[in-house]
Amino acid sequence: MRGGTSKGVFFRAEDLPADLERQDQVILAAFGSPDPYGRQIDGLGGATSTTSKVAIISPRPGEADTVDYTFGQVSITAPLVDRKGNCGNLSAAVGPYAIDEGLVEVREPVTTVRIYNTNTRKYILARVPVENGKAKVEGDYRIAGVPGTGAKVSLEFERPGGAVTGRLLPTGRAQEVLETDAGPVTVSIVDAANPVVFVRAQDLGLKGTELPQEVDSDPELLARIESIRAAAAVRIGLARDPADATRNSPAVPKIAFVSPPADYVLTSGVKMPAEDVDLVARIMSMGKLHSAYAITGAICTAGAARLEGTVVHEMVPAQRRASTDVRIGHPSGAVEVGVQLDTRGPEPEYVCATVYRTARRIMEGFVYVPESLFAGVARG
């Protein structure tokens, strides 16, 4: 299924081994990972981070119209299924999948599916247009990074703060100097939907409007970006050391670099006017620059934009800082996030984030893996 700007393979939990280690082996075989050639030629993987994702779905016991959703980022070259965080884009396909699979009661014209993301232990409310008992696919809603239009799916991420670390500001600071293998750098580490370490584009020697090819073709820049991300993983307790972060936690935390609104050219060749965005941001995905923007990253970025003292807040023009929505300019266009933030207590609380996506089922059927992977083990 495609969800937003991501694509993934969806499994019913009952069709996979219950043992997580064996489950990962089945998923890796289905995707064609690990592939030292980086092509996933022997499986269903798409050979990019945004197309090498897995979703495992089951009804949630005791909760009507609710499904459990486990996300996995499937490494292309390593034998790893990273389950530390969620994928917001792929989350957009969970509601339509649950409807089409008969896992929830279907209501027309809109069915509300409550999604429990097991990775972050957070709920997402998906409001999905329905027609003739199935999730509607065709519509006039357009999102940057996906050709054509589709039916508009609303996603409300309930209390996304502290999704992985338990705190919106994992270190208790809105901004700090992080010691990295490439030297000290000023960052903001925020955890909402997924933890993200933010750095000013200018501190990386960048304008902030670079396109994927410009970043991905610079190995020294990529190494510096990863050194910052890995140091942040250690700082918030997700890895023992930077090498452990790179090896075993490549998807979380994410890293983004931010800059003020500016005119720039999109990957499509169209000009993005500065007045159409509140800040410009670029986010990395498994060591490469995301061609659009991760939705969990957008939720975190939007929340950080509303938190005084963060490097993200610095980028937003003063006249836009009180708005309830944040428009983030990325390589393919812009994504808008509705933000409800409560700053009255001793610590800020992220009440809700709302985004809109499109999704569709691309195919259904069987994927073949070695029979030995199921020998002598129970299914989910």
Give the beta-strand count: 21
The CATH homologous superfamily of the largest domain: Diaminopimelate Epimerase, Chain A, domain 1
At CATH level 2, the architecture of the largest domain is Roll
The total number of structural domains is 2
Radius of gyration: 20 Å
Distance between the termini: 21 Å
Range of helix content:
10-25%
N-to-C series of helices and strands = EEHEEEHHEEEEEEEHHHEEEEEHHEEEE
Secondary-structure content class: alpha+beta
**Uncertain stretches:** none
Query: Quick one: biggest sheet?
Result: 19 strands, mixed
Q: What do we call the CATH topology of the largest domain?
A: Diaminopimelate Epimerase, Chain A, domain 1
Based on CA inertia axes, which overall geometry fits?
globular
**Average pLDDT number:** 96
Q: What this model shows, in words?
A:
The strands form two sheets. The protein has a 19-stranded mixed β-sheet that branches. Strands 14-15 form a two-stranded antiparallel sheet. The chain is globular. The chain folds into two domains: 2-152 and 360-374, Diaminopimelate Epimerase, Chain A, domain 1, CATH 3.10.310; 176-344, Roll (Diaminopimelate Epimerase, Chain A, domain 1), CATH 3.10.310. It has 380 residues and is α+β, with helices and mostly antiparallel strands. It is built from eight helices and 21 strands. The mean pLDDT is 96.
